[in-house]
Amino acid sequence: MTEEQKSLPKRILIVSGLLALMELMVSLSLCISPQSVLETVDLNAKGVDYLIYMWAARQFALGFIFGFATYKKSTPMLTVAYIFFLVMMVGDFFIGISQKNNSLIIGALAMCIISSVLIFAINKRK
After folding, report:
1. Residue 79: which of 92, 66, 88, 89 has the closest Cα?
2. In angstroms, how far is CA 115 from the centroid of its own chain?
3. For the segment 98-119, what is each residue's pLDDT rounded down to a tens digit?
4. Is 126 buried (19+), middle (13-18) or exposed (0-12) by CB count in 10 A?
């Protein structure tokens, strides 16, 4: 283990681990019980199951990346994961605006702020 890996604060690793678990749980719930996540979507429409599984795969991949980067305590991997997460949340923010969904706007904005702060905190030690 390098000195850089040892110097990552525990609070960053805890938040990253929680984000990994959150993403994995969303992926699992999309696969097992999509109606609990997608209340306003007609799950019987053609092609919807394909989109749900694509979304679940995206969430699983992000959760796995966060988990692996946290386990390895890798500053570059966590930076890339948080940049990807930030870009994803910016997209969700604009989707929330276009759909006039205040909860999505607020949630995406909060996650944008959190990921930006963590990107800064991870990289300020360099």
Report:
1. 66
2. 9
3. 999 999 999 999 999 999 999 9
4. exposed
